[in-house]
Amino acid sequence: PSTVNQFWLFAGGDPNQPSFPVISFTAYFLKHAYREFLMALRRVDPELAANLPADSRDLLTNEAMHDFLARFRRLALEDPGFSKQRDEILNTPAIGDHRALIASWLKFLYDADSIHFNHYGPPGAIPTISVSQLLGGAGNEAFDFSGKVVFVGFADDLQPQKTLGFYTFFSKPQNLTISTVELAATAFANLYENSKLKVFPLGFHWVILLAWAVLIVTWLTNQRIRYGIMASLLFSGAYFALVFLAFTSNLWIPYCTVLFVQTPFAAFCSIWWRYAVSHHEREEIYRAFSYYVPEKMVDKMIEKGVVPGSGIAFEIPRGACLFADAGQYTKLAESLDPMSLGELMNRYYGGLFPLVKRHGGLVSDVVGDAMLAIWADERDFSGVVQSVCRCALSVQAEVERFNREHAIKLPIRIGIHSGSFRLGNVGSDEHYEYRAIGDTVNTASRIENLNKKLGTRILVTGEMITQTGLFLTRELGSFLLEGKSRAVLIHELLCGMEDATEQRRRLCAEFAGGLKRYRLGAYGEAEEVFEGILGFYPSDGPSRFYADLCRQQRGHCAVAMNPQPIRIGKD
C-alpha cells in the first residue's frame, strides 16, 4: 500500500473540480448553516446574495454545488475585498450558533489546493460499524446516528481480503492500513473542525535542518565528547518536546530526520572531525619533536598527552650514545673560508644523518666536526645495541666513500656507550638548546677521544658489546678516561660477523694473547706478541700502543700482576 499524507481540496487547482471531502462538507454546511449564512451575506453584499437561491436544497444538485463552490473559491483567491466581507459575515449576529461551522467553511476556501491530513490516531480511531451489526447484530439498538455524519464504504479491518488501504504516520509498528472510507471521514472532520495539520514550507524545513546541524556540530566539536553527547541528548529531548507541543496545536515540525538521522550523523561527523584534528595534532607533534627526540620517546610522550613546551625533558633510563668526530678538522678549518667549510660539512653530514635515522637513531647535537646520536628503547636494549653498532659501521663506510670522492680527507672516530641520560632543554630564558646530557654522553665523548691514543676508529664499552654476538670485536683493556673516577672496559668494533676475514680473526686472537700477558705483568712476552702482530698488520694502532706501553714497563719486575686500568690524561 501507498502512504497518504495529503488530500485534495480542488483537484489540480481547478475551482470547478472540488474533491469528495469538500463536497461532503459543503453539503453538511448547506443543510445546517446556509440560511444563516445567506442572511449575513445579504447584509454584507446584497448583490452577491441576490444571485444565490433562498433554499439550500436548490444547491444540492451536482452542477449547482460545483458552481456554488467555484464562485466562492474564486472570490477567496482573486478578490482581495472578500477577506473583509468574510470577517463581517462572521461578526454578524444573525449567524448565531453556526459561527464556527460557517468560519470553517469559509476558511478552507483560502487554503492550498491540497492540505495535510491531521489523523486522530492509528487506523480505526474513527468508529467503524459493519453492515451486519446494523442489520441484525446484537446490540444494534446502541447505535444512534442523530447529529452525525456517516460515510459508507469498504473498511479494511472488516474486509481483510481487500487491499484498498493506505499507510499513514500511525501505521507502524503494527503495519496497519487505513481504509478509503476512514480517510474520507478524517478529511471531513479536519475541514469541519478546521483542524488540518499545518506544515511549514520546504524551505523552512531546510532552515531547521541547517540550524540543528550547526547547533549539534558546534557543540560537539567545542566540548568534550562525553559532555557533548549528553548535551545532544538534552537538546534532542527538548526538541522532541517542542515537536509534541506543536503537534497538539496542529503544527507539524520535522523530527524524524532531525532526531534519528541528522543528530547521529552530526555526532559521527563531529567525533570523526575531533579524531582527524587530534590525529593531525599528533602528527604535527610527532614531526616536530622527532627532529629532537627518538621516535619511541615521542610515541610515549603522545600516549601520556604531553603538550610541547619549553619545560619538556625526558629521563632515558637506558639508551645508547654514539659520539663521532672528524679528524683533521682543525687543519681543514684553517685552510677554507667559512662558506666553503660549511658547504663541505653539509655534504659530509648529508651522508651521515640518513644512516642514523635509518638505524633508528636521532642526531641530537652537532658542533662543527662532532656529532652526537642517541638511541632509546627500554623494552629492546639488545636491538638498540645492534642498531647503534651497525650504524657505526655504516657511518665508517660512508666516510671512507666521502674521502675517496674528495681531495680533503676527514677520517672519523666513533665512541659508543650506554646508560641513562636526560634529553631536554639546556640553558636559560635568553637561550635554550635541546640536547642530551649526562655521564653517558660525556663518557661516549671520552671514548671517542680515546681513538686518538689507540689509533682506532670505533670503540665501544664492554658492557654493551657483550649484549650481542653479531659483531667481531676485540677487547682493548680497562681505561680510566680523562676526568673519570671509574674505569671502563673498552672493545674495538671491527665489523659484522658476516664480514669477518681470517686475517681479522687472527688479529683478534693474537691480540687477546698479548693483552693477557700484559695483565700478568709479562711485559717482555707481551711486547713480542704485539710486535709480531705489527709484522703482519703494521697499521694496527692498539698493538703499537701496547708495545710502547710494555717497553715503558720493562724496568719493573719481570713478572707482576698488573690489573690496574690504564690512565688516560689530556693529549
Characterize the structure shown.
With 571 residues, the chain is α+β, with helices and mostly antiparallel strands. Helices cover 51% and strands 15% of the residues. The strands form three sheets. Strands 5, 6, 7, 8, 9, 10, 11, 12 and 13 form a nine-stranded mixed β-sheet that branches. Strands 1-2 form a two-stranded antiparallel ribbon. A hairpin with a 2-residue loop joins strand 8 and strand 9. It is rod-shaped and about 150 Å long.
Keywords:
571 residues, alpha+beta, two-stranded antiparallel sheet
What's the layout of helices and strands?
Elements: E1 6-8, H1 20-44, H2 46-50, H3 62-78, H4 81-90, H5 99-108, E2 114-116, H6 131-135, H7 180-193, E3 198-199, H8 202-222, H9 225-248, E4 251-252, H10 256-289, H11 295-303, E5 313-326, H12 329-335, H13 338-358, E6 362-367, E7 370-376, H14 381-405, E8 412-428, E9 431-437, H15 439-454, E10 458-461, H16 462-465, E11 471-480, E12 488-496, H17 502-520, H18 523-536, H19 541-553, E13 566-567
Parallel strand pairs: 3-4, 8-10, 11-13
Antiparallel strand pairs: 1-2, 5-7, 5-8, 6-7, 8-9, 10-12, 11-12
Helix pairs in contact: 1-4, 1-7, 8-9, 8-10, 9-10, 10-11, 13-14, 17-18, 18-19
**Strand residue content:** 15-25%
How would you classify the helix and strand content by structural class?
A: alpha+beta
The shape, in one word, is: rod-shaped
Based on CA atoms alone, the radius of gyration comes out at: 50 Å
Question: Portion of residues in helices?
Answer: 40-55%
Largest sheet: 9 strands, mixed
Q: Helical stretch count?
A: 19
Classify the oligomer. Answer: single chain
Mean pLDDT: 82
Distance between the termini: 101 Å
> Low-confidence stretches at least 5 residues in length (pLDDT < 50)?
none
User: Got a strand count?
Assistant: 13
